[in-house]
Design brief:
The complex is a heterodimer of chains A (426) and B (745). By secondary structure, chain A is α/β, with parallel strands linked by helices. In chain A, 20% of the residues lie in helices and 26% in strands. In chain B, helix 8 runs parallel beside helix 9 and helix 9 runs parallel beside helix 10. The chains are: A alpha/beta (426), B alpha/beta (745).
Chain lengths: 426, 745
């Protein structure tokens, strides 16, 4: 792979058979599978690192294995394949169709760090500024010069231009022995010409701030499922210790609120497909660290489709996991105990139930990113998902439908064949 | 014969390496001790000028081996990539030495020197791989002419491949021929769609790159990817003509879970209890069904999970039945607008956009969805069926009166059991759905591919008989290279997912052939051009290699001598680890190579009281974990010498014996987790390593050494924080035990 994560000297991205937009698990898969079938690939990623959402996950269901294991192999496949060109901090600004080919403009944000960075870490020691750590969903901070996470790829620092004081501070530049920092690097635009495009642009967690009735943003003890992944991860803000955010103490009771924003006409009308399994999995995280914690699972339907049923059956054997059918109406604080009260209604009886817990996990859904990108509107459906219509623009992964990782990888692999058909047709 | 090694050693003093160790001493190890002709130091080895100067040296000095003493092999692989005739080894002085050990310490220096010696020994004892050269047939065989198989065949053909598509019936189309409509697969996801199966069939049949063979079973497949020989059985006659294919997609689909086993739902007992499939056929073909004889039906009840999510039947969920019954409820609405329709369910499972369809059906008149468990069905006096339902949302028992009952029966993979030749869908009595038993052997499943592989006739299956991949990240990981399962044979799934899967499997087939043409391996050692060489004159026919290969690479002749099939091979080296005669080697990975690295380590004599621990780390998870340890600058005992291995299963017991007789005091083996949820990238490498520990213990006994001197650990990549503890504790344990008495002998 040619790593263009620093691209200051580049005026054009050149030509390739295939452009893969997004380097999460879908995009990485599409890029390696294509390159290993002999295609020239340009892979672009808006973040300063590749791996996307799964890079932040603690474990996959149902095996409870770490995503880093598969990413390691895939990154090795990328690294050692000369047919892939990678651009990080890169976003598509425009796509033009020209005689069966696509001319794509890509905006490259400055990393301010060039390829001479050896990740020695001297810069971090002198950086006086702080930024919110987005990788950890702002649950902690890093210095303005930072590495997104310890095992991030590319292994290079990046500077947050919002909080960095630039040359007026210059401390990192002075500390760097390898001339790896250029605080004057500018944003730039390049263009590439490709025969096919795979949109592997993934998803964002549904904005939990829109779920104020569920207490998010109001109470520290209400977190989302993606935050829970970071809390459970060894390289997360708490080094993998799951504690009650407001007190940093052991957790005695947890409520999982399913369909937080999904299957809801006021939010996302579709089902996000993976949240039931994600919460069942997270109940195992809790159980492992807090053997006595009572876990309440508020759901409409438990959707552990296919062979995932085994995992659901296994969680049901845990007698301290209590399943309650009915949508959660609101979450509020019990002022006397400081605990959270989860109020749910039985949709048929109208009866209300209340559970008092120390931590609430909102199983927020997946919102496709592709709807906000410069894609022809006819390729996007009412819910913002990519519609595959058989031309050279191909969607895969969560850009077409909410789905689990194995299904994403299947679709991403198949999308390469669609690209080949298009490329060979030319 | 390959050229004599000419080695250049390049050491980096940047990234704290120079401040941690005495580089001049390292240079001496290379140039004086090892007589390396070119040895240079740069304080910034990865800089452009530095890399350029290495390239110049390679040319002017005719170097064919380069040892880079700098950061881990996991970084800057594109920077330190030279002429393809140059073999490069990376000695990890940064993560494994400078960042994890006390600076300017005698032990740290010894560690760095040993790693350099090991690197030099390694390049002197291996060669650049020469790819095999086998003529590759690029035809793709697709077995199964249902929607997955046809999609796969067409996808491959449109990408330029020649395809042979076989179907056991005398017509293409599979299950979709029986269906009136299918659940919505595209926006707005609210109305059942035509399956357009006829269009797909005619597209397949008119594609000139696809040869369709109907009424066809596979009699035998022999050979290896790129060179399979297939014998078909057409209309029950074994063909004399054979065909060559390169790769195979198995899209043999699903069978209905036998409704005759669903007596508790009245099937076979009450004549108006039918399956969803019978309903489909009735709606599609008019009034052929004797139950639904065309008279208006007044009430229909769908019973979901009839035989699924049920310990007595299929423990798993068949995934599509909720959407299917919702669709069939609309058929009833269309045909009998006044009929009352009940759907009894445990959970409505309409993931993703299927939810929009569910919403739409919920809003229909006369459709009533009730959560509950059916406890009894009985015929009432007026001929209707009385259905007792327990455990409803309201907590009470209810009874529904219904004219017709439709059972949403589940999906069983075509691979599970039963003779597919007979066309029967019956399941034999003793056959069990116990996941483990089904997974134990491919032999338990239906013989569909009839491979002549020594390890069985078909794709090995997982739980419940599905020949699926066990890897979440690698759903096309297959234990039979070049053979990929697609569609419902591997897991219950809907039509959209089956089509996606069909594309994916076809791509993998094409990709595998593309790789084989240049002698390259596929995932996980993609691009690797090495392959195992067998020095058969010394083979004792012990069969360990043929039994232990996780990919069924090796067949056997009548005497039990292994017959290699290089394109089946995934280059894990498990055969190398298994061979007691040490006759299996790769050009760049061999018993001799690792033995030379072990020998290169300087073992202090017993009076220095410095133990030496050898640690074999799997390069897939354990070794990257150790890099992360470096990244965090966590410190660990400097007496450990790490050798990365392709898989723990590739560790030959002789290395352990060598190391102990050389004076190493203890040996650690760290690999991926094994067991039901194994993480080993080669299926069972670490498990085999663990099994071989018995032999190791035997060896230790013979040597009168403590069994605790050799230990195996499993580690996930995210458990890096455990590594320093594993190292430190082991050194302590060994120190307490006393040093190896063979030291210096």
């Amino acid at each position: 792979m040619i790593d263009n994560s620093n691209s200051t000297n580049l005026s054009s991205g050149g030509q390739a058979d295939l452009l893969v937009i997004g380097a999460g698990i879908a995009g990485i898969t599409a890029a390696v599978e294509a390159a290993e079938t002999g295609l020239n690939v340009i892979l672009i990623e808006k973040n300063p690192y590749i791996g996307g959402k799964v890079a932040g996950f603690n474990q996959y269901f149902p095996k409870l294995c770490p995503p880093g294991c598969g990413l390691e192999i895939n990154i090795r496949r990328l690294r050692t394949n000369p047919l892939v060109k990678l651009f990080t901090l890169a976003e598509v600004t425009n796509v033009q169709t020209e005689s069966g080919k696509y001319k794509v403009n890509i905006r490259l944000q400055p990393r301010f760090i060039n390829n001479q960075c050896t990740v020695c870490g001297d810069c971090v020691k002198v950086c006086p500024e702080k930024r919110k750590n987005e990788f950890n969903y702002s649950m902690d901070e890093t210095t303005s010069i930072y590495i997104p996470f310890e095992n991030a790829y590319p292994q290079k620092y990046v500077i947050d231009k919002e909080t960095c004081k630039g040359t007026s501070c210059n401390k990192c530049v002075e500390a760097c022995k390898y001339n790896a920092i250029d605080l004057n690097e500018q944003e730039k635009e390049i263009s590439v010409e490709v025969k096919s495009i795979i949109w592997a642009t993934g998803w964002e967690p549904y904005n939990a701030n829109k779920l104020d009735i569920l207490g998010f943003g109001k109470y520290r003890d209400v977190v989302t499922n993606v935050m829970m992944e970071r809390l459970a991860a060894t390289d997360g803000p708490t080094q993998g210790q799951i504690l009650r955010p407001s007190t940093n103490e052991k957790i005695n009771s947890v409520a999982f609120v399913q369909c937080a924003g999904s299957r809801d006409k006021d939010h996302l009308e579709y089902c996000s497909s993976i949240c039931c399994m994600a919460s069942l999995k997270q109940s195992k995280y809790i159980r492992e660290q807090h053997p006595d914690a009572e876990i309440h699972f508020h759901y409409i339907d438990v959707r552990s489709n296919g062979l995932f049923e085994d995992f659901y059956n296994d969680v049901q054997k845990d007698l301290k996991v209590h399943f309650h059918r009915g949508k959660v109406a609101k979450v509020f604080k019990d002022e006397s105990s400081g605990q959270m009260i989860v109020e749910a209604e039985n949709s048929l009886t109208g009866n209300l139930m209340q559970n008092k817990v120390e931590l609430v996990v909102l199983a927020t859904g997946m919102e496709p990113t592709v709807k906000n990108l410069p894609v022809e509107k006819s390729l996007i459906d009412e819910n913002g998902f990519f519609k595959n219509n058989g031309n050279g623009m191909i969607g895969c992964g969560v850009s077409t439908k909410p789905k689990d990782v194995a299904s994403v990888v299947q679709e991403a692999t198949g999308s390469v064949l669609k690209a080949i058909q298009k490329i060979k047709g030319n | 014969m390959a050229a004599e090694p000419k080695v250049g050693v390049y050491l980096c003093s940047g990234c704290a390496i120079g401040e941690s160790v005495n580089i001049d001493q390292l240079v001496k190890v290379a140039s004086e001790e090892n007589k390396i002709p070119v040895c240079k130091v740069n304080q910034w080895l990865c800089s452009e000028e530095s890399v350029e100067s290495i390239k110049k040296d390679i040319e002017s000095e005719n170097l064919n081996r380069v040892v880079i003493g700098a950061c881990s092999q996991r970084f800057l692989s594109d920077v330190f990539r030279f002429d393809s005739k140059v073999l490069v080894d990376r000695v990890n002085l940064r993560e494994n030495v400078a960042w994890t050990h006390k600076a300017n310490d005698e032990d740290t220096q010894m560690l760095a020197e040993d790693y350099l010696r090991m690197g030099i020994a390694k390049v002197n004892n291996c060669e650049l791989p020469e790819p095999f050269n086998i003529e590759i047939n690029e035809t793709v065989l697709v077995v199964g002419g249902g929607v997955s198989g046809m999609t796969s065949a067409l996808a491959a053909a449109k990408a330029g491949s020649q395809v042979i598509l076989t179907e056991k019936e005398d017509h293409l189309g599979g299950w979709l021929n029986k269906f009136y409509k299918v659940t919505p697969g595209s926006a707005p996801y609210t109305d059942p769609e035509s399956s357009r199966i006829e269009e797909l069939i005619s597209e397949v049949e008119s594609n000139e790159k696809i040869k369709v063979i109907k009424s066809c079973l596979i009699e035998k497949i022999s050979g290896q990817p790129g060179d399979f020989t297939v014998i078909f059985k057409i209309n029950n006659e074994v063909q004399s003509e054979t065909l060559k294919v390169g790769a195979i997609v198995q899209a043999t689909g699903w069978k209905q879970y036998d409704p005759n086993k669903l007596e508790e739902y009245g099937y076979g007992k009450l004549d108006k209890v039918i399956t969803g499939i019978q309903l489909e056929e009735f709606i599609k073909n008019g009034s052929k069904n004797k139950v639904l004889n065309g008279k208006p039906i007044k009430s229909v009840t769908f019973i979901q999970c009839a035989g699924s999510r049920d310990e007595k039947h299929l423990p798993y969920c068949s995934s599509v039945c909720c959407s299917v019954s919702l669709k069939q409820a609309l058929y009833i609405r269309e045909k009998y607008p006044d009929a009352l329709i009940y759907i009894i369910y445990k959970d409505i499972r309409t993931p993703a956009q299927h939810e929009l369809f569910y919403k739409r059906v919920q809003n229909e008149d006369n459709i009533f969805l009730t959560k509950g468990d059916v406890s009894n069905l009985a015929q009432s006096d007026d001929g209707t069926i009385l259905i007792d339902i327990d455990d409803t949302l309201l907590g009470e028992k209810i009874q529904i009166k219904s004219e017709v009952v439709v059972l949403a029966t589940g999906m069983v993979p075509s691979t599970l059991i039963g003779e597919i030749e007979s066309g029967e869908e019956e399941t034999s009595k003793e056959k069990t759905l116990d996941g483990k038993k089904a997974a134990e052997s491919a032999e338990i499943g239906a013989k569909i591919l009839n491979l002549t592989y020594r390890q069985g006739t078909d794709l090995p299956t997982l739980k419940y008989g599905f020949p699926d991949s066990h890897y979440i990240c690698f759903p096309y990981e297959t234990r039979r290279t070049g053979i990929y399962a697609a569609g419902t044979v591997r897991s219950p799934m809907d039509i959209t997912a089956s089509k996606n899967d069909a594309y994916g499997a076809a791509l993998k087939a094409i990709q595998m052939l593309y790789a084989a043409k240049t002698g390259k391996a596929v995932h996980p050692r993609s691009g690797d051009q090495s392959y195992p060489d067998f020095f058969l004159q010394r083979c004792t026919q012990c069969k360990r290699c043929t039994e232990e290969c996780p990919f069924g690479t090796l067949d056997e002749d009548a005497k039990g001598t292994p017959l290699p099939n290089p394109t089946r091979c995934r280059r894990c080296g498990i055969c190398l680890g298994a061979c007691p005669e040490r006759i299996i080697s790769f050009k760049d990975y061999s018993v001799q190579m690792v033995a030379s690295m072990i020998k290169a380590v300087d073992i202090p004599d017993e009076f220095e009281e410095k133990p030496r621990i050898l640690a074999f780390l799997c390069e897939n998870d354990a070794y990257p974990s150790l890099d992360i340890v470096g990244k965090y600058h966590l410190q660990y005992d400097p007496n450990v010498r790490v050798i990365p291995v392709r898989c723990l299963g590739s560790v030959n017991v002789v290395w352990i014996a060598d190391a102990l007789s050389r004076g190493f005091d203890g040996i650690l083996m760290i690999g991926c987790k094994y067991g039901d949820d194994y993480q080993c990238h080669y299926i069972k490498g670490s498990e085999l390593a663990d099994k071989r520990m018995e032999n190791v213990q035997e060896k230790l006994k013979q040597l009168v050494l403590e069994p605790e001197r050799v230990k195996l650990h499993t580690l996930s990549i995210d458990e890096y924080k455990k590594l320093p503890g594993i190292f430190n504790d082991f050194v302590e344990e060994i120190t307490d035990m006393g040093l190896n008495p063979y030291k210096g002998m």
